[in-house]
Specification:
About 60% of the residues lie in helices and about 5% in strands. It has about 500 residues and is α/β, with parallel strands linked by helices. The longest helix has about 30 residues, at about 220-250.
């Protein structure tokens, strides 16, 4: 910042909190918000008291008072002197003016400084820059500061800056909240589209990184299994924010507004089908982001009856097959087992056990190799079921309801994929090809005792006919014969697979 005093945020803190203030400044810089901080803005020989007084009184449009156990423990500090000046300024401002904002770096109380007129500092709304809600509070703080500074920059700068500073866990929660706020506001759609596109590019950068996903596997067999499982976990963590936003868009958006998410899933699947040399166990993992995106869309759309959204998400988009010969709908171009086609079932069972128990991957692998525990019937589906659960926690608080809807989404995807296979087979009867859908999962073994989703789906079709939601929305080409053929073919395979589980 130059010597000339201009509009800025003044940050008051004690030196012991310098690391936390560094993080706050990083967020402000990312959002292009000017700020005044003593360590940055005081030069050698400066009359520091006069400079600070000028920074507070002449140029500060926001004063951030940062509190922690470190500041509370000090009976005397330069921060107290800064806050005294700030309180003097605040007392001269009209009632209701937002200028002095307390910031907490821990769960301790905001001090009760007397602000005059019966007010104390702890009466003011404060921002918590710690804990699991740190990122959400940082986003709101930056939004408030931009408004107080009278900036004309779009809110996108705020959102992107906050998301970019977020940890992976916070990032999913924040992106989901921002999607809820922006989706139904036409004036903010450009911002939201750019926000989602940013997430898509983060995922694609990894999928196109040949060194990461096509490197060599070293070590013992167990070490290689853990390495592959770690890569799968990392890819899920990378994809989770996109899927969290996708869940909201599928439930509340309309087909014409879903382009950023539709394009994202299609790009993920296209990147996975691009030929790549290397270790097949790592190369095939590139299918994971597209596959989890399709499952997220199916679960969100089918459970809320948004069949037109599902059509636009998983049926209409297509990619060229690996050899570039023909367009293939993405629901056929990938499937739950595609990411793990180059590895053993120890990888998927280890992933499933780790996600279910919360233990690390190495210990989870020992459940099968040393403790001789039985393997899962459908380990990929078990893993998916666990990792997607938090994204849908606001939709179903009840685990049984979530599990039933997960089963139904598996079957819906399976029947839709079967229709794609049927159409392709009818067009090329002489060419050998897959004759069955490959979207099967935990619903196969659960159908014996937890409800039969394929029977329920077939009953809906038989009862409602042309008025059945998927048909009325254009799935199966709106053709009853196609729907019936897909249901019957999938049902036959479903029962065959279910019978093999026991």
């Amino acid at each position: 910042m130059s010597d000339e005093v201009g509009k800025h945020v003044f940050i008051s803190y004690v030196r012991e909190d310098s690391d936390q203030v560094d993080g706050l400044c990083a967020v402000l810089e990312a959002a292009q918000i000017p700020y005044w901080r003593d360590r940055k803005d005081l030069g050698p020989g400066d009359a520091w008291r006069a400079k600070i007084r000028a920074a507070i009184r002449d140029g500060s449009l926001v004063f951030l008072a940062c509190f922690s156990d470190n500041s509370r423990a000090k009976a005397r500090s330069y921060m107290n002197e800064e806050l005294t000046l700030a309180v003097e300024e605040f007392r001269q401002m009209p009632p209701g003016r937002v200028w002095l904002i307390p910031v907490r770096f821990d769960a301790g109380d905001v001090p009760g400084w007397d602000l005059g007129a019966g007010r104390v500092l702890s009466d003011l709304n404060y921002s918590d820059l710690f804990g699991r809600d740190h990122t959400a509070h940082a986003a709101r703080l930056v939004t408030t500061i931009n408004r107080l500074l009278g900036e004309k920059r779009p809110d996108l700068a705020t959102a992107l800056a906050a998301v970019e500073q977020a940890t992976s866990a916070d990032r999913a929660d924040l992106l989901k909240r921002l999607t809820k706020e922006m989706l139904l506001e036409p004036s903010r759609r450009i911002e939201l589209d750019d926000l989602v596109s940013q997430e898509v590019q983060r995922v694609l950068a990894v999928l196109k990184n040949a060194e990461r996903l096509a490197g060599q596997l070293d070590g013992t067999n167990e070490e290689q299994i853990v390495r592959i499982a770690e890569e799968a976990q990392d890819l899920w963590t990378l994809s989770e924010p996109f899927c969290a936003s996708l869940q909201v868009a599928c439930r509340w958006g309309a087909p014409e507004s879903l382009q950023p998410w539709t394009s994202g899933i299609r790009s993920f699947v296209a990147a996975a089908t691009r030929p790549e040399s290397g270790t097949s166990a790592l190369v095939e993992l590139r299918h994971l982001p597209g596959m989890v995106g399709i499952m997220t869309a199916a679960l969100a759309c089918a459970s809320s009856g948004n069949w037109a959204n599902l059509k636009s998400m998983v049926i209409d988009p297509s990619v060229r097959d690996r050899y570039g010969q023909k367009p293939t709908p993405i629901v056929e171009a990938t499937d739950p087992n595609k990411p793990f086609g180059g590895t053993t079932d120890y990888v998927t069972n280890t992933l499933a056990r780790a996600s279910a128990t919360g233990r690390d991957l190495g210990d989870s692998l020992k459940d099968f190799t040393e403790r001789r525990n039985g393997k899962y019937h459908t380990p990929v589906a078990e893993w998916l079921h666990h990792v997607l659960r938090p994204i849908f926690s606001d939709q179903w608080s009840d685990d049984d309801a979530y599990s039933s809807e997960f089963d139904r989404a598996e079957v819906v995807l399976g029947v839709l994929a079967q229709d794609v296979v049927n159409v392709r087979a009818a067009a090329n009867p002489q060419k050998p090809s897959w004759r069955h859908s490959r979207w099967y999962g935990r619903s196969t073994w659960r159908s014996e005792s937890h409800g039969n989703p394929i029977a329920d789906l077939a009953h809906e079709f038989d009862t409602q006919g042309a008025q059945w939601g998927p048909l009325a929305s254009g799935l199966f080409g709106g053709n009853e014969d196609r729907a019936r053929a897909a249901l019957e073919a999938y049902q036959t395979s479903f029962y065959k697979i279910a019978g093999q589980q026991f």
